[in-house]
Amino acid sequence: xMTARGLVAQLSSMVLSVVIASLxxxxxxxxxxAATLHVPGSYATIQSAIDAAMDGDTVxxxxxxxxxxxxxxxxxxxxxxxxxxxxxxxxxDGIDQVVTMTSGEPASAILDGFTITGGFGxxxxxxxxxxxxxxxIRNNIITGNTACTGGGISxxxxxxxxxxxxxxxxxxxxxxxxxGGGGVFVGAAGTPIIRGNVITFNSxxxxxxxxxxxxxxxxxxxxxLIAYNIAGSTGxxxxxxVVNRSELLLxxxxxxxxxxxxxxxxxxxxxxxxxxxxxxxxxxxIVDNESKNAGSQVWxxxxxxxxxITDNIFSGGTGVLFQCDGPGVTPIxxxxxxxxxxxxxxxxxxxxxxxxxxxxxxxxYSNALAGxxxxxxxxxxxxxxxxxxxxxxxxFDGLARSVDGDGNSVAVVxxxxxxxxxxxADLDGIPDGDDACRHAPGPPxxxxxxxxxxxxxxxxxxxxxxxxxxALPLMVATIAxxxxxxxxxxxxxxx
Length: 495
What we know:
Layout: H1 4-32, E1 36-39, H2 46-52, E2 58-61, E3 64-67, E4 70-71, E5 78-81, E6 88-91, E7 99-101, E8 110-112, E9 115-117, E10 120-124, E11 128-131, E12 136-138, E13 141-143, E14 146-149, E15 153-156, E16 161-163, E17 166-168, E18 171-172, E19 184-187, E20 193-195, E21 198-200, E22 203-204, E23 211-214, E24 217-222, E25 225-227, E26 230-231, E27 240-243, E28 246-251, E29 254-256, E30 259-260, E31 268-272, E32 280-282, E33 285-287, E34 290-291, E35 298-302, E36 308-310, E37 313-315, E38 320-324, E39 337-339, E40 343-347, E41 359-360, E42 365-367, E43 372-375, H3 435-439, E44 458-463, E45 469-473, H4 478-493
Parallel strand pairs: 1-2, 2-5, 3-6, 4-7, 5-8, 6-9, 7-11, 8-12, 9-13, 10-14, 11-15, 12-16, 13-17, 14-18, 15-19, 16-20, 17-21, 19-23, 20-24, 21-25, 22-26, 23-27, 24-28, 25-29, 27-31, 28-32, 29-33, 30-34, 31-35, 32-36, 33-37, 35-38, 37-39, 38-40, 39-41
Antiparallel strand pairs: 42-43, 44-45
């Protein structure tokens, strides 16, 4: 016979089991029935909707301008515009960062489809500040923001994914020097990914006018357009600055018309420290950048680790295109194409042309003056690259890699970010059969054209008159896209 104590214990166990099962059911129900909180329909402000939201919810924001400085408060929620970044603005009014994600936001935290402007960071991140968090920032126009470091975005100790944004016209304010990054700063050991962004017209008084990477950990920077950025009076790396222990894969970017008027590395300034780290510069097109000192396209100093440099184009500009300064280890470039300047390589880097697959010759761009760096079929870059572990299945525009470009029935990768493709005769980054669909007004489905899947080489911030998001290859009209975002940003800032 069961004792009274045994009966109580059994009943307690049964009650506990029921409670646990009930909680599990409630949790499952809440997950399945994640809520959509409408702004301003149900909540007057974006922040009030965030305050009320739970993990898994979506804060859906109607078109308009919202004068707010919002904080995700560590929640795994999506804050998304209903009609796209050109018609939905969060204006920070110079009070603080526009968006804060510094409370351990998980990967399910997403900011999607806004113009982020008018932000001021007294130190990190004028537009968006991320720290010890892993959110996704996508499909936004981030413009007209200032900070000491990371005028547009700052991501520290972060696993953030920053993708398909236009990051333009952000600058330094509130300090001198600092760790740089007019457009984006990434640092303090994380695993961030920066891909498919347009980073243009940003400036920094110190280093890294477009992007500054400082002790950033394991980082991937791929398929970005980085152009018309300036490193100021005290720094270098007009487009990109890389320092300290940053295990960087710099892959398939187009980096052009950046300036370091008082330093080295108009396109890239890269200092590799004494630690052994895995780094690679692969399949980039680095062109028409300028610097006061040597290395108009790339300036490099490597103390103990020889950087992997393969399948890149270095062209245009003045002076020495690729400069290696000591003390340090001399890299061994392979399968690169260099052209222009007063000399191709300098410093510790002797000219490797004619060895290890390195070439020299006019890259034969479609229209460099218009920012169109697609290569012609006659380019010496066609079918002259090499397949490496860093090679992706598609090129900068999302078209197939390793196409037979010279007609010998052997598919070989091209050098640089662009793969010449016989299906793109007009060199606009769109297969000729899709031109009518992709250039026509209105969403592609209106014309019976399927929307292509998102790839690294597309930016999804443009909207048509119907408010539908459009996917455009980054290099279709680089100057036009940047200028459009820039003009929009000026109108927003003047409101």
